[in-house]
Amino acid sequence: METRQEKSKTTSQDMEGDKKESRLLLVLFVMLLMDLLAFTVILPLMPSLLDYYGQVDQTGLYGMIQDNVNWFARAVGVPQTRRFNAVLFGGILGSLFSLLQFLSSPLIGALSDVYGRKPLMLLSAVGIACSYGVWAVSYTFGIFVLARILGGISKGNISLATAVVADLRSAKSKGHGMAVIGIAFSLGFLIGPSIGAWFSRMSNEGDFFSTPALFALTLSVVNIVFITAFLPETLPPEKRAKSIGIGLSEASFLVNPSSLFSFSAVRNLEKKELESLQGLGATYFLYLFLYSGLEFTLTFLTHNKFQYTSMQQGRMFLYMGLIMLVTQGGYSRRITPGTEKKIASRGMAILIPSFLLIGAAESTALFYVGLGLFSFASATVVPCLTAMTSSYGGEDQKGTVMGILRSLGALARAFGPVAASTVYWGLGALPCYTIGGLLIAIPTLMLAKVQVHPTAQGQDHKQD
User: Fold this and answer.
1) Nearest C-alpha neighbor of 191 from the set 377, 317, 30
2) Residues 6+ apart with CB under 8 A from 261
3) How far apart are CA 253 and CA 264, in angstroms?
């Protein structure tokens, strides 16, 4: 039986531990915010960047790819439209970046299990900074592609951030940690594109991308110093994996699509539970595949149809970000446990008319109506699907279940942009958004067939 003195000592240690974890979460927030601000400055510039390379790099990699694309277009009878070539090239680059991230993130995570979180976080930050340095001098398309390859390979810091949160001792701190990551994402995507557009106006016309790139590089270098000075190591040596082989085995599983879709690493689930989890994973993948592709082509649609400048693109991202932030901070936070399936289905259903409006809009007013619906639905679907998935598996399996879900999402984003951009290139904006919007009905119907986990149902009945 504990004495009063021992209880007081334990309470004091718990309070000190909570303070340390609160400070760690603040460090994590600042680190992620700097990274995401740097990452998002390029978003409103992508259409203009590809137009630029289409003009200055006709004898280089861009011209070579364009000649092959034109040959293929003639062979299959697709009308040759140079401005749509930029959409296709952008989709290829977007998918390449996400594919490299999908492949490298599990490897970086496995290495961090052996060598600690901080060394790999620093290595990732250095690689990201190098990618921005290369982007700042990318006067040819080949150099720009090299910058995106470096960035994709190095972009393991987000998965490392979730690993840092998983290292925390209390469930309360882990919950706060995931919220911190979500807030950093929201603010980064809200502010970063506007900063990128604003800095591009300060540059000369011939190298309009250099100032945003140097801003991203500066933030990344500051972030390296910040991580070195303030981020503590959260995985002590006694808790690290003894062999890199075990970590690499787990990493290889996370890049095997067959293993991901079957959730084969999740043990001790009843057959019906496993089937529901597999259905939820397939729904999540197909939804993100369609969603990420259409989301990626938004800047090209506004560039081609409405001749948006980088500043107008930045304002578009600001409008989307504000709606998503308000929705996440208000509506999404008030979702009662057990109702996630209904809310996710409603969000997917809203996306169908939103994509039809975006594709058909001939005026910016109608386009922004569709964009508003899109932003509202975007803020609800993934959090609800994530919450549904997190109810499966025992406490010792939660990390595995959520790791598989993240990998399925990364895989979807690796193929979504190039698929949607190919349809856009071949058929145009209206068919692309019409087909994509109508296809959203498929994951909506798939979700309807998924059985809600008994835990979530129990929570729902309690709310009733």
Assistant:
1) 317
2) 278, 281, 282, 285, 408
3) 9
Rounded distance, CA 240 to CA 242, Å?
Answer: 6
pLDDT of residue 78: 67
- Decide: 158 and 106 in contact? Cβ < 8 Å: no
Give CA–CA dist 408/401, Å, rounded: 11
* Tally of CB atoms within 10 A around 309: 17
**CB neighbour list of residue 426: distance below 8 Å, 6 or more residues apart:** 76, 78
Judged against a pLDDT cut of 70, whether residue 418 lies above it is answered with yes
* Inter-residue contact 117 to 98 (CB < 8 Å): no
- Cβ–Cβ < 8 Å for 385, 372: no
Cα–Cα distance measured from residue 337 to residue 69, given in angstroms and rounded to the nearest whole number = 49
Residue 393 DSSP symbol? S
* Among 50, 140, 43, 97, CA closest to 425: 50
Q: Which class for 75: exposed (0-12), middle (13-18), buried (19 or more C-beta within 10 A)? A: exposed
Say what the pTM is: 0.86
CA distance 399 to 388: 14
242 contacts: CB under 8 Å, gap ≥ 6: none
What are the backbone dihedrals phi and psi of residue 85, each rounded to the nearest 5 degrees, phi first? Answer: -60, -35
Tens of pLDDT, residues 25-84? 999 999 999 999 999 999 999 998 998 998 898 888 998 988 888 887 777 776 666 667
> What's the burial of 239, exposed, middle or buried (CB within 10 Å: 0-12/13-18/19+)?
exposed
Amino acid occupying residue 134: V
